[in-house]
Description:
A: Rossmann fold, B: 7 helices
Amino acid sequence: MDYVVLLKQVPDLAEELEIDADGTGLDREWLSFVASEWDEYALEEALLLRDQGHGGTVTCLALGVETGAVDELLATCLARGADRVVKVGSFQVPPDSHTAAAAFAGALAHIHYDLILTGVQAIDDLDGQVGPLVATRLDLPHVSVVTHIALAHHHTTVTVHQEYAGGVVAEFEATLPAVLGVQTSRETPRYAPVSRIRQLMKTATIEALAAGSGTGSGLVIEAMTIPETGSTAEMISGNSQAIAERIATILAERGIGPAVAR
Amino acid sequence: MSGDVFVIAEHRDGAILDPTYELLGRAKALAGASGGEAVAVLLGSDVAGLAGSLGTAARVIVIDGPGLASFSPTAYQAALVPLVREREPALVLVANSGSGMDVAAGLSASLDLPLAAYAIDLAIDAGGPLVTCQLYAGKIQAKVRFAGGRGIVTAVAGSFPAEAGQSPGSPAVETVAPAATDDRVRFVDLLRPEAGDVDITRESVLVSVGRGIGEQENIELVEALAAALGGAVSSSRPIADLGWLPRTRQVGKSGLKVKPRIYLALGISGAPEHLEGMRGADLIIAVNSDPRAPIFSVAHYGVVADLLDVVPALTARVGG
Amino acid sequence: MGRELPIVKVDQVFELAEAVVDGVDISGHWNRMFSQRSVTEYPTEAMDWVTSLDGGESLRDCYQCGKCVPVCPVNHVGDYGPRKLNAKVLRGNNLLDDPDLWLCTTCGNCYRVCPKEVNPLRIMPAIREQAVLEGKVPDELSDVFRNLQKSGNPMGESPRKRIDWVAEAGVEVPLISQLGRPVDVLWYVSDYTSYHPRGKDAARAMARVLTALGVDFAILGPEERSDADSARLAGETGLFEMLAEHNIGTFRKYEFKRLVVMDPHAYNAFKNLYPELGWEGEVLHYTQFLAPLVDRIEFRSTIELDVTYHDPCYLGRNNGEFDAPRRLLSAIPGVRLTEMPHNRANGYCCGGGGGGMWLDGFVADHVSERLSERRVREAVDTVGTDGTGVLSVACPYEPSRFEDAVKSTGNDGRIVVRDIVELIDEAMQPPQPPQSPQPG
């Protein structure tokens, strides 16, 4: 079984995000990048599937984005146990999801895969999620928001759970090869010790593949803004009844409570 | 090419889901400016009866086929791509749900139609459709347009009022067979959550209790409120340490990280270790008798009062 | 008996064929001595493995005398002691899968009393490093490792927020990068002092004290990274080295006479470990820096409080400084200093060291109460609960640990926790008008 995991880095939200001078993008000066959380779940699932009896290889692909630290991301994948890492193309800034999907699809033409896993989403997915976009380009079946993956023993199908609101879950059987958008892994993503990552950054081979080309997201960003948030809470006062009334109204505005038809 | 606004309907157990109503209401409001009509697209097997619940739409297109008896990403994609390609609506609205994400991105890549995701608002002005999207865990909003003036929008649940999509009506119903099928993803079963202990990381409403609760027997007041709101009870560390609630309910640095839509913090002071576990919640309402409790620095709404007064009053108000 | 006992081989036998001492003939077997070997009936692989690790050698020296057990703080609240670990290894247990591996806070009290100088402060990180390399780390702890890797502090906060506390200090706090000249004191503020609300209180107090004394000081600000000494003791040596490289690179950029630190863990790293990594300099804990200057502090108020002082393990027992903090406290007018039963070299650990700060959830299943809770009870017994009692501390781990423990032991409002520098700062202010008592 050959597993492929598609990963990327996203801005670390611990840093204050600022808008650039144009007003249409993020100011990159103080951004620091971390692996997208859901991509880490996808990698963890791939490693567990490989190690818990099915064998095979885990290959990690990441776009060669100059901002951020893609080499460290790929070294971390190796430190966690991936077999092979590939840097795809070269980009000055992180591309949109459609461009990323085209890039990965081009590279995947040169890699054998049975199951492609990637995070269900990322925090900067303005134009949609990479998983289904890549799948459709490669004419592969795809399932998003996957919370459970079980490979059939004959390795031609996979059973997955797709999660909906309220804890409802649909069980599907998908024919391989397929693409899964992973929502969570069955174990927390394993920790990669720093000494191992540093060692791998010096010694490991990171392969390179050319990116496929595409036409981009087709979106024009008119403006990016930071929404107003008060630095302190809006205080509600009055007697218990008045407070209860106000809170109930606030909740109803968000569809919680008796105002919503269920 | 038409000015129609398509809404891809979601349904389960014979009922249309709320996010569909939200989108229908919006579609109807925008259809005029778009130069077309609000059209609901309903996929299923023998679902014509459900079309009656989509009265807000001007028309309903029912794609009916045995392969669509339950949702499947491939079956829906195979049926919708030819339809959208043929009818060329101005906008396709999809809920940002478990199924919606597959459908919308699949349509976008198949048809080379731009997709604006995580929309919290949608308008049409002289420049065409204008989508407001939420990014970076809500810290950034982007206003975007489609380069060609047409595109797909996935909207975050709760962005629009569902009531606006629930008006009665008798729209014209057109039933077609799916132009293509794809059973590479096959529905097996629908699983509902067990009545066992709760996974608080998956709850959208959490009523969380801290030391301000005072005595253990007061916890049942909080449980009543959670039940009335359709949510679950969670807690700060001290309550778990005392054994008043299972550790699986503990929110915080040594507990679980939660990102519910609503987080009610009752009698929780808001130590950084606790905030770490819940500050990502969409809406935080804090009740604490100490006006200087740090929880108020992350809460959206705050109440300085004894939670033992507020909780029963709130339960009575929402419990009906 | 039918059982075959394994023959335990001995490396060396020392014996003098001819030996007469004080007229007594003890030739031959009378003076025979054996070299060190494990006294065990079990195969020695597990012990051999531990002693092959750099730092693990001394575990073999234990002969189970048990002196370490009553002084181990974890033993007071659970079924654990350093001797138990030795026994487990002798029996061939794999410590990598054993929760007991994570209970030790490296407080050093056992090492202090051990006749064989068995040293868990070196053994624990050695074994824990192997656990980390195999991915066998409690999630609570690995989350903090990730934060340290990503942001250089255990909270995962932006390095730029390290100076958020400065705005309300009320005095100027120069950044050494902006000073453009050598400075007398480079003040290393440390993680919890920079980011935790109670730490920031101490930071602001320290800034005011330094200013009042006319000290020529500056801070690193966003260039500062964690000392990561506790992460090292919890098994992440690679992380410690990576952050040390960064800090040393930063130290080398600037000229300063002394490095003054708030955090005993940073003190330990900079003083004892950084020299072999390439940086050596004069390192002082802030109490050591202020104590000689205490007569120059102008106290304007009297603080009528019963104070007891908690010796931080990494300032007191492990680095020998007991007097400077006490000199400072005694100098504050009105302070009545009383010692807790466990004081000075026998101080009782707060549970935060050796990674313990980030293992409370994990450890909770193995102890009857937190070490910090036990210590707070001791403080309450010493200074009372009438609201005039203060548990004073000199380590940034402690305000949050002890204040949590004050609440969870039901002592909220009866005793308060204050960093020494907060008390000095308070006593430097003019007397406050009488106020109604505030909750602690």
